[in-house]
Amino acid sequence: MSVLRAALVVSGSYYLAARLGFALTPPWSPISILWPPNALLLAALLLAPTRQWWVLIAAVLPAHIAAQVQSGVPLSMVLGWYLSNSSEALLGAAAIRLLCPRVPRFDSFRDVNVFLVFGALLAPLASSFIDAALVTLLHWGQGGYWRLVRIRFPANALAALLVVPLVLTWAQGAGAALGAPLRRYVEAGLLFGGLTIIGLLVFNWLDPGTRRAPALFYVPLPFLLWAAVRFGPMGVAAANAILAAAAIWGALHGLGPFYGSPEYNARDVQLFLIAVSVPLLLLAVLLAERRRVELETRGQRQQLAHLSRVSLLGGLSGALAHELNQPLTAILSNAQAAEHKLAAGGLDGAELKEILGDIVAADRRASDVIRKLRVLFKNGDTQLQELDVNDVVREVLDLAHGDLTTRHVTIVQRVDARLPKARADRIQLQQVLLNLVVNACEAMSADELHERVLRVETRRSAHDGVQISVIDSGPGFASSAETLFEPFYTTKPHGLGLGLSISRSIITAHGGRLWGSGAPGRGAAFHVQLLAALSPGGHAPLVQ
Amino acid sequence: MESPCVHVVDDDDAVLVAIGRLLRASGLQVRTFASPQAFFAQHAAEDRGCLVLDLSMPGASGLEVQEALAAEDCSLPVVFLSGHGDVASSVRAMKAGAVDFLTKPFEAEALVAAVRQALDRDCVSARVASLTPREREVLGHLVEGKLNKQIAAALGASEKTIKVHRARVLQKMAARSIAALVRMTERAGLKTAAQ
After folding, report:
1. Is A27 exposed, middle or buried (0-12, 13-18, 19+ CB in 10 A)?
2. Using the beta-carbon criterion (under 8 Å), do B84 and A406 form an inter-chain contact?
3. What is the complex's ipTM, to 2 decimals?
4. Which of A12, A190, A478, B81 is spaced 20 to 30 Å from A238 by Cα?
């Protein structure tokens, strides 16, 4: 059913494209300035699975005949052109599919180059030889073989350059484009409206005179660059189409900066459009590719951070169970105490109220632990926000409380209550601090119980940054603290050695610093330094 | 002598209050301490009763408290509470003479039963402590089911003397019969005093 619909759509648009091609055919030439149906078929083949190609190629035959017969072309030539047109699309599509087995992506430099070489250069060239041979054999039209090749090739190459990117980018990105916010619509309106007006001015309305001509070609350039930078390949494809429409229309009617014989005008406009559209398309593709790679890298970093967070929490599961057991114990004992008293008839209202209050508080404490855990387990996008670092420290120590108690670690907090806010992702900062706290606890496991002291300090650092220090009383660093940050370096029997290196990459991505200090035998200290957030009436921002 | 009292030590305030409440509801006398330090600060050698000890506390473990008590020659029986059923710790605790090792969260019945057993043991050991060394020897032989004649032979005393000792032991231990005496020492988990 969907194949049938695709065939109908392709057939219908092929017909319209062929009519457009005839409309753009100058009276003095057998061949159009721009012949879009072949490019349209190529785009359709690239979007379709290979096994449906024959359906699409068959479907355009009636459209082809209908469009050509109207123009008074003899049937043998109509069929000959069907052969050369569909061979162009098929050759291009087959070569591209062979080299790039997916629908070519316009955020991949390689895919687009494959398309340019095979779809826009070699396939039109090869089919132009077939076309010219057929025309010569059937004695249709005037002009020698090579002249036919010379006229047909640029018309089809230009069509491929204009139509295929337009169809493919819209087929792949229409959903995202249509869902864009209003301001993007406004910007697109300004861009494409402006480009249309400029195109009409330059190529149709202004009487250039001979001296103004060369400069006029550059007037649309700012709009084209605007399209490339702000709207990517899809925007460039649309902008190229608008520019081509204006330029070709002008050239056909002897208007605009093209001057010379009509045939030279046709060739000039083709050359101009090819020379403009290829570099612009490549520029937009390069920008899109860079953005995609950036997003992928960020996604991978996030994935890695999430995985290390999950494994960190997995290692804490025993301690977290303990952390939940405490409030559960309090709830159960309180409830059973109330039962006992009730059975003995010695429970008064005030006492009951007190017990219920304690139960509610313990329940809240348990759900608090679960809520914090759920947040940490989530795999979400980085969300930078202004946050109170002291709050984050408290949350992390709450989460680590079970681990701290089962390891008999005494905690000493020294926080600066007048700390400026920092700009950071809350979850990632929690992860880094939790990692440091867990490491510190493990570092003290050989110490006497009463010597296991973990100090957590926050203070304002130089340049108005915010510094958090996690200091243990363990054996300190055997070698340089820096080696600890190397990936896969670990001192633990079951450690992966990724915690600290991931933590550092998180803090570095925040524009901050994570480092270790401390002398052997005197405990280890890790420091996180973050940029203070800009706050209007508060502290001066970090400018260095 | 102080009246028997359950001493509860746990660093978690909510749990401490709840356990205190539960034990009081079961008719026991309770004192709560938020840390081992607080307990030792108020502890006197003649305190009677038992100790309910959390295993996981910052700066010290319940096992260390147990060892410190043993070093002080304090015989308060201990019931351990733990947030996680750690086998190694429970074995160590039981070997060091703990009455029971409960994993949080526990049933009220389990805690109350363990505490009562600990109080029993304390009561019996208090009675044993009131015996003279000779009477303790006799007690050891009695719970092994030996006859007066055998005990007299073993201790090199006359049967008549042993009879007197035996009456004193039963009276001091508040046991009406040898069978009750055996039951009492077994229930309290005491090794016989003769060892």
Report:
1. exposed
2. yes
3. 0.82
4. A12
